[in-house]
Amino acid sequence: xxxxxxxxxxxxxxxxxxxxxxxxxxxxxxxxxxxxxxxxxxxxxxxxxxxxxxxxxxxxxxxxxxxxxxxxxxxxxxxxxxxxxxxxxxxxxxxxxxxxxxxxxxxxxxxxxxxxxxxxxxxxxxxxxxxxxxxxxxxxxxxxxxxxxxxxxxxxxxxxxxxxxxxxxxxxxxxxxxxxxxxxxxxxxxxxxxxxxxxxxxxxxxxxxxxxxxxxxxxxxxxxxxxxxxxxxxxxxxxxxxxxxxxxxxxxxxxxxxxxxxxxxxxxxxxxxxxxxxxxxxxxxxxxxxxxxxxxxxxxxxxxxxxxxxxxxxxxxxxxxxxxxxxxxxxxxxxxxxxxxxxxxxxxxxxxxxxxxxxxxxxxxxxxx
Amino acid sequence: xxxxxxxxxxxxxxxxxxxxxxxxxxxxxxxxxxxxxxxxxxxxxxxxxxxxxxxxxxxxxxxxxxxxxxxxxxxxxxxxxxxxxxxxxxxxxxxxxxxxxxxxxxxxxxxxxxxxxxxxxxxxxxxxxxxxxxxxxxxxxxxxxxxxxxxxxxxxxxxxxxxxxxxxxxxxxxxxxxxxxxxxxxxxxxxxxxxxxxxxxxxxxxxxxxxxxxxxxxxxxxxxxxxxxxxxxxxxxxxxxxxxxxxxxxxxxxxxxxxxxxxxxxxxxxxxxxxxxxxxxxxxxxxxxxxxxxxxxxxxxxxxxxxxxxxxxxxxxxxxxxxxxxxxxxxxxxxxxxxxxxxxxxxxxxxxxxxxxxxxxxxxxxxxxxxxxxxxxx
Lengths: 369, 378
Hints:
- Chain A: This is Glycosyltransferase.
- The complex is a heterodimer.
- Chain A is of the alpha/beta class.
- Chain A has helices spanning 18-26, 40-44, 77-105, 119-125, 141-150, 152-157, 201-205, 222-232, 245-251, 264-267, 280-288, 304-311, 323-335, 337-351, 356-364; strands at 2-6, 30-36, 50-54, 109-113, 130-134, 168-171, 186-187, 211-215, 238-242, 257-260, 273-276, 293-295, 315-317.
- In chain A, the strands form two sheets. Chain A has a seven-stranded parallel beta sheet. Chain A has a six-stranded parallel beta sheet with strand order 10-9-8-11-12-13, with helices on both faces.
- In chain A, helix 8 (222-232) links the parallel strand 8 (211-215) and strand 9 (238-242).
- The longest helix of chain A is centred in the N-terminal third of the chain and has 29 residues, at 77-105.
- The mean pLDDT of chain A is 91.
- Chain B contains 15 helices and 13 strands.
- Chains A and B meet through helix 1, strand 3 and helix 3 of A and helix 1, helix 2, strand 3 and helix 3 of B.
């Protein structure tokens, strides 16, 4: 069977789909993974055939269809609508490429990231069953509704009055973290994946003491990171920053800190603490590795799933906090065993979920008439 | 569980073990693939974590320490001994770093492709099971034995009298093409893997004319064997076909200008092969298996002696035609192409073998055998 995967708007929004795409391919099916031009190296370096379907970058769509630049409002409903519309325009830009790919390659299934809003449209146009892949974290429903509204002209062109229904849905959110109102979905165990690297010796030959890993993806300002690192050095732990190379270059050589472009899922061990900004992929990877989290302020924080993580006892929120408060949060998480215990409970829950290879038959079985 | 995969020194043999490694990763195991520095990007670009164990390269095993080329024997037996000793040297270069890594990382099991002789040694050193996976359909007995001889000093150092045997052998050869005396094995469906790059729509859409892919092999350079390749473009391109020539960029550039029905350059086999009616190749192990997977008839010109056995078997099965290397003139290749394209039984037999392969246990099931092995040996 030919199965088309459609990436989300960033690498982080696409990584969670990689293990499933690999598993579908390893079951002998043909897989294409479509996405934005900039994501091609990310997809190809997951060992998957990558097809570009759009080239406009997300910030380009801060300009609306009239050519007016949109100012994003303060966090809240208005901002969610505005952000959702940006995603909608980003999706509209990929629609022609996706329609052509579906027409020419004739996939028999389309499996799209929840934020790839053009995927259900292209699938419907080709008469192909569509599978929605969600993390159900940091995917506010208003984003989706506003994105679909923004796609109104495209729906009209395709003769549609609403978003075509999915044939199936898949969710990698562990049950106790899933919002109660999330669409019913087949559970899938999250397998941590990021673009891989060679392991530096410290990653496997270091001591057994705890690590504080700072995941500096996204737009964390380096000067704040400097303050944070200075504070973290006071802790009795090995400090590691994982980030894209350009972020690392901007940090220079802070003393007593390891800098590495090492995937989070490879660098963490139980007993560590991860400081990050609350993106779904990082949240899930920490949970799958039984590692408590300290969430930094920024998008998509403050957010519903961050609050749930705190309630479950696996995360400390430090939205709006100073570097000093973040360091204090790390100290508390390292010292207080309940965080590690809660993290182990969540990992056990994740380990109960079906593996990618187990889900393949359900996603490739015949569609009931 | 921690699974240490040990890579061979060239892309083709690494491609063969990538599916089992990806399946292990996707089943939630910790997976690291160790190899020389120059293959790290091949490993990481398959979505796998790499660890570099030596700065030396596989191809340097063909050189003396002073950089002079070792003469490659023409006699077949001598050639196998020579190849085996090269693989032995390759293992020797990897071992120091590999043992040190294993001491730190403490794998639960080691998986290595055939011809990767550091794998059984590191497994025994770590006291864990060793899984050997076939990388193609070859059966390199004398090569194995000569590699063991070359590794004699390592065997002594580690306290062994012979090369440790595998605790599980995973074979990718479909049963109907296995030799009668092939060792017992966990059979695994071969899943093709190839270098990734930009995919264009012409690669996966086809017109009405038959599509023929000539895989030039990575060893062709504008100086070496180039006449054969340019002759092929002229002769096969003159047939009423759409001709693709998979060739490195410098070779592709040297072939230009090309007729309208011919394209040359990087081609991903896993995207293009499903649209092809015939693939012409030098019978490289992974290319042959990949085309079997896609059910594509093959014209095979086995330049390397080790490819002769499986080329004969696939020819006898009816899914391929063999052209002896001494008969490889462009006229003969074009004539053989015409014959395969005009004889439906090749396509039928290619589909038969593809269907047989599709019913074999996949990488996830082969992984289950590895998991059982580890549990019973604890």
